[in-house]
UniProtKB/TrEMBL annotation:
Cofactors required: FAD
Ranges of residues in domain Acyl-CoA dehydrogenase/oxidase C-terminal: 226-368
Family of the protein in this entry: Belongs to the acyl-CoA dehydrogenase family.
InterPro entries: Acyl-CoA_Oxase/DH_mid-dom (IPR006091), Acyl-CoA_Oxase/DH_mid-dom_sf (IPR046373), AcylCo_DH-like_C (IPR036250), AcylCo_DH/oxidase_C (IPR009075), AcylCoA_DH/ox_N (IPR013786), AcylCoA_DH/ox_N_sf (IPR037069), AcylCoA_DH/oxidase_NM_dom_sf (IPR009100), Mycobact_Acyl-CoA_DH (IPR052161)
Lineage: Bacteria, Bacillati, Actinomycetota, Actinomycetes, Propionibacteriales
UniProt cross-references to SUPFAM superfamilies, sorted A to Z: Acyl-CoA dehydrogenase C-terminal domain-like, Acyl-CoA dehydrogenase NM domain-like
Keywords: FAD, Flavoprotein, Oxidoreductase
One Pfam family this sequence matches: Acyl-CoA_dh_N
UniProt domain Acyl-CoA dehydrogenase/oxidase N-terminal: residue ranges: 34-118
Acyl-CoA oxidase/dehydrogenase middle domain mapped to chain residues: 122-213
Species the sequence originates in: Nocardioides cremeus
Full protein name: Acyl-CoA dehydrogenase family protein
Highest taxon of source: Bacteria
Length: 378
């Protein structure tokens, strides 16, 4: 059996030799549309070498990787400045959902193409009036003679313009959790219109997605009708777990920051204290993440919310500290990612996959048993 250290040296060797598609860098959970060619080429290389969908079981095309191997993979790819995969949605969110709720024919059809990177997936959950309050989803799927017809609007769909498929949360029944179902939507189907949203940093990773009388086959339903909430919770739980993997990459960010501040003579006592504090937080986060995988936490478990809050807020604070330390120099960078970008991405991470406020609500109610907040009537 391979040891963690032999896995590391094999991976490091492979990373040092694997040809880098032009323009490739560690773009995080989602590539920009302009990065797609490099991203797809990189994922194909990962797949060919057996490094795609590392934590999936072997029977579904993964490697059944141990916790130590997953941590090493996140660490080494961060140091090599390459992404861990094409994007987060297929490998980290949809794959595990299809393994749990998908029928065998769905697993056969979709899983191998996620491993190979031939299909990129996006997540069609949030709506203009249903973000934190996901149970308020209004997009409706109604039964037709041959399947389903979908009408509605989604927003903040990361990677929606490049994806082949989306995992959709839509209302098939009455109000609340129980009226929701999950579907596979081909993003090139008639009636799917994707409109890119330009962000404050000038990039465009999100989209609005308009669904107008989109016809889906009967077999597009994931799980049973009315099981959409369980599918959504598993998807969000895995998103929170996946974010924890960023912890390993944060060590690199801290090292880069310390080096840049040192070169500019800006490493005073306060800055050193701040860097040390962030390093400690990153270390705790890393062990919490490893523990969550090792314990096989279920998506509803509070450990996912702890991870989500800690990972996103530490990432945000590293960016903030970098901007404070480097001042205007945080706007420029010799490589692809100025620190100011890291700071903005960190703030975004405190929102995606359920905001910090929502995670704290979950912890307060489920873990501490504090009174539930009043429910608004819809
Ligand atoms: C980078 C990024 C990528 C994303 N990618 C996707 C994607 O691919 N697919 C997708 O479906 N969605 C995606 N999202 C959307 C994300 O899930 C939502 O932004 C998030 O759930 C918050 O919803 P909202 O933006 O509608 O804010 P709202 O729900 O309107 O919340 C506004 C503010 O009110 C606070 N708030 C709301 N309810 C409560 C409460 N009960 N108690 C305390 N405070 C509360 C929130 O914390 C927030 O600060 C992404 C978001 C970001 C930032």
């Amino acid at each position: 059996m391979q040891t963690a250290e032999s896995f590391r040296s094999e991976l490091r060797e492979w990373l040092s030799q694997a040809p880098r598609p032009e323009g490739l860098h560690d773009y995080g959970p989602t590539p920009l549309d302009t990065e797609m060619v490099a991203a797809r080429a990189w994922h194909a290389q990962l797949a060919a070498a057996g490094y795609a969908c590392l934590r999936w079981p072997v029977e579904h095309g993964g490697r059944g990787a141990s916790v130590a191997e997953q941590a090493i993979f996140a660490e080494e790819t961060a140091y090599a400045d390459v992404p861990r995969q094409l994007n987060i949605v297929g490998p980290d969110l949809v794959g595990p959902v299809l393994m749990r709720y998908g029928r065998p024919d769905q697993q056969e059809r979709y899983l191998p193409r996620i491993v190979s990177g031939e299909d990129m997936w996006c997540q069609l959950f949030s709506e203009p009036d249903a973000g934190s309050d996901l149970a308020g989803v209004r997009t409706r799927a109604r039964r037709t003679d041959s399947g389903w017809a979908v009408d509605g609007q989604k927003v903040w769909t990361s990677g929606g313009a490049s994806a082949e498929f989306g995992i959709l949360l839509a209302r098939t029944g009455g109000p609340g959790h129980g009226g929701l179902s999950a579907f596979v939507v081909p993003m090139r189907a008639a009636g799917v219109e994707v409109r890119p949203v330009v962000q404050i940093d000038g990039e465009s990773k999100f989209n609005e997605v308009y669904l107008t009388d989109v016809r889906l086959d009967d077999d597009a339903l994931i799980g049973d009708e009315g099981q959409g909430w369980a599918v959504a919770m598993m998807t969000l739980g895995n998103e929170r777990l996946s974010l924890g993997a960023n912890a390993v990459g944060m060590f690199r960010a801290l090292g880069d920051m310390a080096a840049a501040a040192g070169e500019r003579g800006r490493l005073g006592a306060a800055q050193q204290a701040s860097l040390t504090d962030l390093w400690v937080r990153t270390w705790i986060l890393r062990t919490t993440w490893e523990r969550a995988i090792a314990e096989g936490a279920e998506p509803g478990d509070a450990s996912f919310s702890v991870l989500k809050v800690m990972a996103s807020e530490t990432y945000r604070d590293i960016g903030n500290a970098g901007v404070e330390m480097l001042g205007l120099d945080a706007l420029v960078s010799e490589d692809h990612e100025p620190l100011v970008q890291r700071m903005l991405v960190g703030h975004a991470q405190t929102l995606l996959g359920g905001t910090s406020e929502i995670q704290r609500n979950i912890l307060a109610e489920r873990l501490l048993g504090l009174p539930r907040e009043p429910q608004l009537t819809r």
